[in-house]
Amino acid sequence: MARVIFKQVNKTFPNGKEVLKNIDLEINDGEFFVLVGPSGCGKSTTLRLISGLDEPTKGEIYLDEVLVNPLPPKDRDIAMVFQNYALYPHMSIRENLAFGLKIKKKPKDEIELAVKKTAELLGIEELLDRKPRQLSGGQNQRVAVGRAVIRQPRVFLFDEPLSNLDAKLRGQMRIELKRIHNRLKTTMIYVTHDQIEAMTLGERICILNKGEIQQTDTPMNVYQRPANTFVAQFIGSPPMNILKEYSKIDDKIIKFSCEIPKGAHQLGFRPEDTLWEREGTGLHLTANLEGIETIGREAIYHFNFIESKMQIKKDFNPEIIEGNDYWLFIPEDNIHWFDDKDIRI
User: Fold this and answer.
1) Which of 29, 22, 27 is nearest to 7 (CA)?
2) Which of 2, 60, 126, 128 could be disulfide-bonded to 94 (CB atoms 3.0-4.6 Å)?
3) Helices 137-149, 108-122: inter-axial angle, 10-degree rounding
4) The pTM of the whole model exceeds 0.90
5) CA distance 213 to 258
């Protein structure tokens, strides 16, 4: 196992595009750490720098106390799992699992024992004599994980490994990955653009945007105290509602029964924290309901508010009618305040 440390790491591509900007990051020994953000934010590049498949333009990367910038991938003791499985199609599953150990010239009996234990850990014992083409996507992904596990590396890197699976299989594999981490206690660094994966898998998550770290914290802290409006709207489904220039809106449409912090220029509230026509200390506003999406017992209600769109997520209520105006209430403790630079107050 190992800590992974970035010190002022930059990465600029030959075309001049700066992909990572002054990244300072410390990933703890044995931690399940998730990098999340939109496409092009630099998260996969971060994995490639850790693995040695790419080099930083500036800055230093350490595994524990060892500077790994000059080390080739084979000397870093890192295993990487890709989204496309990267299995050898002509080999059996047994041979795929054993391949890395054979390259290292491990004894045959040691390899056989390692294959057996890894197959048991992943529940793929009955698949060992099949070829990858005979397996489902979920089974192939288990094998890809197993090929990394069998090497017993210091660090596992996962580059969007579940993106090719359907929703049900993704849910099952998330549970499997958590179980494997709980068993192995090895440092795992996982890249995804899916906030559900980030929130359910990560002990801590790091949100990236345009090559810069926006916030690093536990999933619950990120959800409850987003550092800025980007994080507030990236984490959460539906995303947080953000209101700007609220002080210029008629007080018949929006009213505050709470103190507004000094320097607050915009505010946010989560769709699930909004209540129907309730009295109390907080924010009261009137908005027009333009549409309803029903999702089983719950519904997402889409509102027009001045020039903004808002969503609230509540239990479905057949008495709530599209086209009507509704008086909504957000309790004071559920209001998030931001300054004019989008930073949390």
Assistant:
1) 22
2) 128
3) 130
4) yes
5) 32
* Closest C-alpha to 214, from 199, 196, 239, 235: 235
Query: 226-282, pLDDT tens digit by residue?
Result: 999 999 999 999 999 999 988 888 888 999 999 999 999 999 999 999 999 888 999
Q: In the prediction, which pLDDT does 97 show?
A: 95
In 3D space, the residue among 4, 18, 343, 31 whose CA is nearest the CA of residue 203 turns out to be 31
Longest dimension (CA), the chain: 79
DSSP annotation of 344 reads B
Burial (0-12, 13-18, 19+ Cβ within 10 Å), 95:
middle
Cβ neighbours for 32, distance < 8 A, ≥ 6 positions apart: 178, 181, 188, 190, 201, 202, 203
Look up residue 226 and give its two tokens.
């987003």
- Token pair 């020994």 is at which residue? 29
Angle, CA 140 vertex, CA 79 and CA 185 arms, to 5°: 40
212-217 vs 254-256, strand pairing mode: unpaired
Work out the pLDDT band at 307, boundaries 50, 70, 90.
confident
Residue 254 corresponds to which amino acid? Answer: I
List the Cα angle 217/221/222 in 5-degree steps.
70
Cα gap 63→154, rounded to integer Å: 9
For the record, the structure tokens of 224 come out as: 């409850």
pLDDT band per the 50, 70, 90 thresholds, residue 314: very high
CA distance readout (Å), 35 to 92, 127, 227: 33, 32, 16
- Of 247, 278, 241, the C-alpha closest to 261 is 247
Closest CA relative to residue 102, chosen from 124, 110, 152:
110
CA angle 44, 237, 253 (to 5 degrees): 130
